[in-house]
Prior knowledge:
This protein is mainly β. The chain is built from one helix and eight strands. The protein has one helix spanning about 20-25; strands spanning about 30-40, 50-55, 60-65, 90-95, 105, 125, 130-135, 140-150.
Amino acid sequence: xxxxxxxxxxxxxxxxxxxxxxxxxxxxxxxxxxxxxxxxxxxxxxxxxxxxxxxxxxxxxxxxxxxxxxxxxxxxxxxxxxxxxxxxxxxxxxxxxxxxxxxxxxxxxxxxxxxxxxxxxxxxxxxxxxxxxxxxxxxxxxxxxxxxxxxxxxxxxxxx
Length: 160
């Protein structure tokens, strides 16, 4: 039987990530739902079709570092501008998390008092392939660094 852990002060939902290090269990205080995105392509014309969405792992523990939007006074996390190194947000998850380029994540984090975090309900799109840093030698990194951009418009048809 695999051990189960609950993540900090968040909801009572148990998350089955057995390979979180002790440090990750302390610092991964954000929770996300992952929505996998697939897009069909017309093979004869090469024109992309519509996106379809399926719910992936839920209540995934993570460490989130949103970038403040210094140009406008907007509630919520991150920026909603052209993606570049200065406007991306970063999220770190456990290295075996099933997430890929163009997937969408939804922040479902709660504050210590049980109220919703300022970023609760915000959606972000994954930009590029996540960078995996596995355990190596004496270093037990076991992390997945994900670059994301807060979404201005949430697409219709998301499962959550």
